[in-house]
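Q: What does the assembly look like in three dimensions?
Context provided by user:
Components: two
Sequences:
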Amino acid sequence: MPVSVRTLFFAAHRELLGRSEIEVDLPEGATVADLVDRLRGRGAPFDGLPSQPTVAVNRTYAPLTVVLASGDEVAFIPPVAGG
Amino acid sequence: MVHAEIVRHPIEPDAILERVGCDRDGAVLLFLGVVRDHADGRSVTGMRYDAYEEMAGDVVRAIASEASERFGTDGIAVTHRVGELSVGDVSVAIAVSTPHRAEAYDASRWVIEEIKRRLPIWKKERYVEGDDAWVQGNAPPIDATPGDAS
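A: Here is the predicted structure of the complete assembly.
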């Protein structure tokens, strides 16, 4: 059963890709790192995403080793600059 | 009362102040972050704030409740605005009330530093010349999660 995750992009990443979200299908057991590799493997402009991004899984900062489940929301988080 | 929110409308500092303070608190402190007219020697006309709004709401509420626990007060109100702002507009307001002044200053400083460290918000400066650029930010620590009291 493939795992389908909703991937969100913000700020500079959103501008780089020209879109704010994308649905990605991954094999069962795939991690966030696998998602990053899959996206970057699409070539330009996706290869402009960082290879070791900060991510949030389901709105919580998470390591790249987290195993994904169908329906998860993964956000690429560029360096933050609130205030 | 602890209160925290992300808004798209102008911030009214008086309304934020009204959320804090009680008879046992002798110190009430208001911090405002305001869009300034320059950055790194360039003239700035405004700022666009983007947010991962659903998560930013969770994170700002976590910061406020952690501050409440850490500094022993329920008098914490934090509001961060997103969208298009001009020079002079308030981007963030932090109101704190505590029995004595030292904790109020400490709590207010702690909240703004946590916002800069981990709130998923980004800002883009617009310059007088018409170009713009994302402000360089901080990579948030991955252990800084809503509900994490560390």
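Follow-up: Chain B touches chain A through 36 residues (CB under 8 Å).
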